C-alpha cells in the first residue's frame, strides 16, 4: 500500500510540473515599425493585390494558444526609429506612410493571429491589415498589409523567422514596405 501511495504522489507531481502555469506573466515585446511607399510604384500590368506565396503564412495550426494583446501604444516622442523615418522621407524615391510603436504580448507560433493596424495607432487612408508577432522556440515577426494607391491595391504578406532583438528587418513588395524592430521588455 505504501508503494502505491508513493506512486500516486509521484504521478500527481509529474502532472503538476508539466501543466502550464496560467498565473505566470506573459513575455512583453516592444515593436516599432516604419511603413513607407515607393514614389513611383510599377504600372498595374501585374496583379500586385495577390499575396505572394511561400512567405511564412502557409503553415498554420489551429491549436489553442495565447492571443496577442496590445499593452500600450507608444507616444511619437518615445519612438527609436525616428532617424530611419527621416532617411526614408529625405530619399526622393520613398515617402513615409506611418511610424508607430507599441508593447504587446505575442501569439503562439503558427497561430497567425495578428493585431489590426488601428489597434497599433496606425490610421492611414488606403492602408489596412495586421502586424504579427509570434513566439515558439524562436521569435517571428510579420505583416499582412494592403495599400491602395491610384486605384491599384498592393499586398505585402511575409512572416520573418529567427528575429533577433534590436535588429531591423525589412519587408517589402514593389510598391511599399516596412522596417520593423523588436526588443524584449524587461520586467520591472
In helices, the fraction of residues equals 10-25%
Topology as H/E string?
Answer: HEEHEEEEEEEE
Overall 3D shape: globular
Kindly estimate the percentage of residues that lie in beta strands according to DSSP.
35-45%
Query: Looking across the biggest beta sheet, what order are the strands in?
Result: 2-3-1-10-9
Mean pLDDT: 81
Number of separate helices: 2
Structural class: mainly beta
Overall radius of gyration: 21 Å
| Low-confidence runs | 2-24
Largest sheet: 5 strands, antiparallel
The domain tally reads 1
CA-CA gap between termini:
49 Å
* Count of beta strands: 10
What do these coordinates show?
This protein has 188 residues and is mainly beta. The protein has one domain (26-185). It has two helices and ten strands; from the N terminus they run αββαββββββββ. The chain has helices at residues 2-18, 82-90, and strands at residues 28-38, 69-73, 94-105, 107-108, 115-116, 127-135, 139-149, 152-160, 168-172, 176-185. The strands form two sheets. The chain has a five-stranded antiparallel beta sheet with strand order 2-3-1-10-9, with helices on one face. Strand 9 (168-172) and strand 10 (176-185) form a beta hairpin. The protein is globular.
Quick structural gist:
By secondary structure, the chain is mainly β.
List strands and helices in order, with pairings.
Blueprint: H1 2-18, E1 28-38, E2 69-73, H2 82-90, E3 94-105, E4 107-108, E5 115-116, E6 127-135, E7 139-149, E8 152-160, E9 168-172, E10 176-185
Amino acid at each position: 500500500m505504501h508503494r502505491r501511495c508513493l506512486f500516486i504522489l509521484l504521478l500527481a507531481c509529474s502532472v503538476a510540473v508539466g501543466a502550464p502555469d496560467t498565473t505566470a506573466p506573459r513575455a512583453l515585446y516592444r515593436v516599432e515599425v516604419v511603413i513607407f511607399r515607393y514614389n513611383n510604384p510599377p504600372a498595374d500590368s501585374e496583379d500586385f493585390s495577390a499575396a505572394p506565396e511561400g512567405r511564412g503564412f502557409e503553415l498554420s495550426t489551429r491549436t489553442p494558444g495565447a492571443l496577442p494583446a496590445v499593452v500600450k501604444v507608444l507616444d511619437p516622442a518615445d519612438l527609436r526609429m525616428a532617424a530611419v523615418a527621416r532617411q526614408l522621407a529625405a530619399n526622393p524615391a520613398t515617402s513615409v506612410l506611418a511610424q508607430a510603436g507599441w508593447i504587446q504580448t505575442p501569439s503562439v507560433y503558427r497561430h497567425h493571429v495578428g493585431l489590426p493596424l488601428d489597434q497599433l495607432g496606425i490610421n492611414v487612408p488606403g492602408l489596412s491589415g495586421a502586424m504579427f508577432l509570434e513566439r515558439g522556440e524562436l521569435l517571428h515577426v510579420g505583416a499582412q498589409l494592403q495599400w491602395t494607391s491610384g486605384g491599384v491595391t498592393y499586398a505585402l504578406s511575409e512572416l520573418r523567422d529567427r528575429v533577433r532583438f534590436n535588429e531591423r528587418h525589412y519587408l517589402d513588395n514593389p510598391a511599399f514596405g516596412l522596417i520593423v524592430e523588436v526588443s524584449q521588455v524587461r520586467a520591472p
